[in-house]
Amino acid sequence: MTCEMCGVQGVTKVTLIEGSQLNVCKTCAKYGTAKPIERERRETVRIEYELVPNFIEEIKSAREKSGFSQSQFAQQLGEKESTYQKWELGTLYPSIPVARKIERRLGLKLVQPLSQEDIVLTSTNSEEPTLADMVKIKTRK
User: Fold this and answer.
1) Are 117 and 88 part of one and the same domain?
2) 100 and 57, same domain (yes or no)
3) Structurally, how many domains does the chain consist of?
4) How many C-beta atoms lie closer than 10 Å to residue 1's C-beta?
5) Residue 61's domain spans which residues?
6) d(CA 50, CA 101)
7) Taking the CB of the first residue and of the last residue of the chain, which one, N or C, has fewer CB atoms within 10 A?
8) In whole angstroms, what is the distance from residue 81 CA to residue 96 CA?
């Protein structure tokens, strides 16, 4: 794939950079935070998922209400305490399957479908859109 920031060809990963989800190369990924997106195929329809916007506040509040320390809850999930701490700080995001596990443990809704209407792409002459080609319009309350 093509990096949507610098245009280099190669392996890319979805990264949250200044509020926008972009497919970027390893070099450009350092400017943002990796954000998990899970793709699911149902017949010919592709469904993508993302974490809810208030993910950090939701897990921290629910964990505290449950009476678990970060260490205890991380252990219950089978994750490292340092990893869980990064989730609550927002410097790292769990994968969609792990977020679903947290949903079940805390009784929360943390994963939502990503609407294709939220992303508007305009294309130039290149095969894959770059950052300059992409306009993302997203309204959240």
Assistant:
1) no
2) yes
3) 2
4) 14
5) 53-109
6) 14
7) C
8) 18
Q: How many CB atoms lie within 10 A of CB 59?
A: 23
Identify which of 50, 70, 48, 44 has the alpha carbon closest to the alpha carbon of residue 59. Answer: 70
Q: What backbone torsions phi and psi does residue 36 show, to the nearest 5 degrees? A: -75, 140
Whole-number Å distance between alpha carbons of 19 and 9 = 23
Give, in order, the Cα–Cα distances in Å from 139 to each of 4, 53, 93, 115: 22, 11, 21, 11
CB distance 1 to 128 below 8 Å: yes
Distances in whole angstroms, Cα of residue 13 to Cα of each of 25, 35, 82, 125: 7, 9, 23, 23
Determine the pLDDT at residue 11: 81
Weakly modelled stretches of the chain, pLDDT under 50? 44, 119-124, 136-141
Q: Please tell me the distance from the alpha carbon of residue 59 to that of residue 87, in angstroms, as a whole number.
A: 9
